[in-house]
Amino acid sequence: FIYKSFRGNKSEDWGLQVAEYMRKNLGAKKFLAFTPYLSALRYAKKIGFTQIAIITKSIKKNGELLDQYVLELGDPM
């Protein structure tokens, strides 16, 4: 998640910094992300995530069932 005040200009840099911090300090190898939003999908792809699946009608917002995009970033297991 990128705080609203950091979205837009250079937000890709923030996303990459978070992933790098997790790798260096916590030993993270792979990151998974779930989102129903196309804007978040595009953002995740900009920083290197790959879409691996779509979970259809899996989250409800404002009474509507939405699909979720499943993405991954990192080393293969």
What does this structure look like?
There is one protein chain. The chain is α+β, with helices and mostly antiparallel strands and 77 residues long. The two termini are 24 Å apart. The protein is built from two helices and three strands. A three-stranded antiparallel sheet has the order 1-3-2, covered by helices on one side.
Secondary structure topology:
Layout: H1 11-26, E1 30-35, H2 38-46, E2 50-61, E3 64-74
Short note summarizing the structure:
This protein is of the alpha+beta class and 77 residues long.
Element-by-element helix/strand order: HEHEE
How many E-type strands? Answer: 3
Query: Largest beta sheet, briefly?
Result: 3 strands, antiparallel
- Arithmetic mean of pLDDT: 87
- Beta-sheet strand percentage? 35-45%
- SS-based structural class? alpha+beta
Which residue ranges are poorly predicted, with pLDDT under 50 across at least 5 consecutive positions?
Answer: none
Task: Provide the descriptors you would attach to this structure in a database record.
single chain; 77 residues; three-stranded antiparallel β-sheet; 2 helices; 32% helix; 38% strand
